[in-house]
Every structure is written in C-alpha cells, then in structure tokens.
Amino acid sequence: MAKLTESMTNVLEEDSMEQDIESPVTIHQPKLPKQAREDLPKNLNKECAKRKIQRYVRKDGKCNVHHGNVRETYRYLTDIFTTLVDLKWRFNLLIFVMVYTVTWLFFGMIWWLIAYMRGDMDHIGDSTWTPCVSNLNGFVSAFLFSIETETTIGYGYRVITDKCPEGIVLLLIQSVLGSIVNAFMVGCMFVKISQPKKRAETLVFSTNAVISMRDGKLCLMFRVGDLRNSHIVEASIRAKLIKSKQTKEGEFIPLNQTDINVGYYTGDDRLFLVSPLIISHEINQQSPFWEISKAQLPKEELEIVVILEGMVEATDQMTSSMLLCREMDFPEASTGKPGGMTCQARSSYVTSEILWGYRFTPVLTLEDGFYEVDYNSFHETYETNTPVYSAKELAEMASRAELPLTWSVSSKLDQHAELETEEEEKNQEDQNERNGDVANLENESKV
Description:
Elements: H1 2-22, H2 34-39, H3 46-49, H4 74-78, H5 80-86, H6 89-118, H7 139-150, H8 165-193, E1 203-205, E2 209-214, E3 217-226, E4 232-246, E5 252-259, E6 270-271, E7 277-282, E8 303-312, H9 313-329, E9 342-350, E10 354-356, E11 358-360, E12 364-366, E13 371-373, E14 381-383, H10 391-402, H11 409-446
Parallel strand pairs: 2-10
Antiparallel strand pairs: 1-3, 2-3, 3-7, 4-5, 4-6, 4-8, 8-9, 11-14, 12-13
Helix pairs in contact: 5-8, 6-7, 6-8
C-alpha cells in the first residue's frame, strides 16, 4: 500500500511538472540600453520593425548631411577667411586670442634678442650707454614693448632710440604686420557678428503641412510668419520635394530634388511678410503629388523642404546709406542696387507631418485701429471635408461628370452600329422601290 501511494505521488508530480512545462509563461524582457535595443533583430519587437524616418533637413533648418572622407583638406586653407567665419564661436575666439598672443610673443622675442646681442642687458642703469630701446631690461619688458608697439598704446616709458637701425626696421615690420593682423582678425569677427543667421530664428514655419480643397482644387499648404517688427525685405519662398527615384534605365537616384511650384509663374512666391501667410501649392498635372491619395500618402517616403529667403531690413538700410554716401563721392561708380545681408530660413515636412483634410486656424483679427496676430494659434489646424482621392482621380471624375450620363465607349460604339444599320436598311428600301418602279415601267411598255 505504501508503495502504491508512493508511485501515485510520483505520477502526480510528473504530471504537474509536465503541466508546468507546457503552460505558457510570460517572460518580461529587461529594459536594455538604447544601443542594445537597436542591435536586436527586428522580429523581436514590432516597434523596431518600423524604419526610422531620416530627415534631409531638420525642423530647425540645419542640413542633416555630414561630409566624410574629404581628402583635399587644403582647399579649406586656400579660403582661410571663410573657414574662420564658419568656425564655432569658441574656436573663433581661441584663434583670435592665439593669433595676437603669438605675434606679441614673437616680436617680443626679437626685441629681446636685439637688446641681448647689442649688449644692452650688460649696461642696465649705465647713463653713458645708449640702448636700442630705453628701459628694456628683460624679456618681460620686451614683451610689453611689443604689445605697446603693435597696439599703438604708447605709454612713453619704453621708447626706441635713433642709434638702433635694426630696431627701426623691426618697428616698421611689426607696424605693417600688426595692421594686417588687425584688419584680418577684426574683419573676421565683424563678419561673424553681423551674420544674419540668428535672424532666421524669428522666422517660423508651421509644425505641419495640410492638404485640403481651396477654390475647388486640391492644394498642399503650410504657414510662415515673422515674429519681429523689422521685416524681411524682398522675401521669397521656395519648396523642394526630396524623394529617391529610379529611372527607366534602372538608375537609382537617392534624394532626388524636385521643384514644387508655390507661385513662381504668378508671383505669389514673392512675399510681403508683415503677418503670417499661408503658402499654397496647387496639385495639378505638373505637381509631384498628382497621383497621391490619402490612403497612399502614409506609404510614401518623401520630405518637403521649404526655404524662405530675404534681406534683413536693418542691414539693407545700412547698406543703402553707405551706397548713398558712395554715390555722392563717386557718382560714376554707382550701381543703383542697394542690397543688405541675405537671410535664409529652412524647415521640412516628412510624410507623418502632412495632414490630409485639415486647414489652418485663422490668426489675424481686426482690433480697434489695428490688426492683431495671435501666434498661439499659429500651428493649430482644424479638420475639414476633403475628398480622399488623388487630384488625378478627382480630375477624371470631374471630366466624366461633365459628359452625358449614357456616355461610354461601348455605348458610343453601339450608337454607331445602330446608325449604320439604319442607314443600310434605308438604302435597301430605296433600292427596292427603284427596282419596283423599273419593273412596272417594263410591264406597261409590253402592254
């Protein structure tokens, strides 16, 4: 009995073990680092299966392109001025300080060597000895004299004497080279400070682009605005479609650029950007969105890059004043074309940021004696009734609606066949009548 009980216990334990093995067990995946999650196979996680959208131009306008394996780096040095201007501020300031410090130290060393080779260091305090530079008694004083010479401070304590021709030549060289260094470095800093890149920070684009009907036509729209009271002069807008394509010959063109017409032929691309404007692109046969419907849009891999350009009003006024002064001094050299510094603002919209069937919320209201812009509603949209078909399909439906309801190719062929049958029957009847008349005439003649 005890053996039977023991054997039954063993069987039950085995059954329970089998049930435990066959029962589904929920395994909680530990939270992995970002790099480990990216290295996991795509079939482990549905989110990993979704391909990350890679922008060509980021929302802040910076191009997401890195230049690698550039072997001809000497080309950057041939245009050293532009290279310095394009550097970041911390490197630019470091080079600015280093250039002046190195030149002061270099010429300070030469001044000290001249004094040392002439023996001025051995006659310090000797009133009967005429040194090259008065009151120069070491390298520190030579360094200070170099700073005073190049920056034209002139404290009056250390001065060069007329008994030192090599010192006079060095003074001329340092003065000329110092002027060149000043012109180059100050000019570089002035250009970098006056660059209108920060002006683009107050030129804003809507977060999303929308597609809806406008004047009976399907249009792609986005909104631009200027937050400053000083306006952009001669502002213009452009748009590019970035999409890879394959030619008929099988050539693959990555990131192919296609122009999107935003009013180039009508002049609507030239803006008077005082208040926010909605830029519209009519989707017609020349549009790259001609065959794209609402259902097909999320499947497309495309990016719309918008570029707003114009001249900064403050720099335009400054340049105009300088040009006016130049015209007064040199009338024959005048071109009559004032121009300020060009400012460019960029943004982009990927497929997920294009809303089908939406419009922008109005932001301009009429107040007591002025117009007010509410930038809280600048990015807001609202849904509107919009066909889900592509512009091509809408055009085909419109063309069919303009024709008779019975119109079709088969019905037209049937109409032609019926007309031909009726004509043949008529011709047969006429022929029979003629034959009958001829037979009657012959009978009458025989009688």
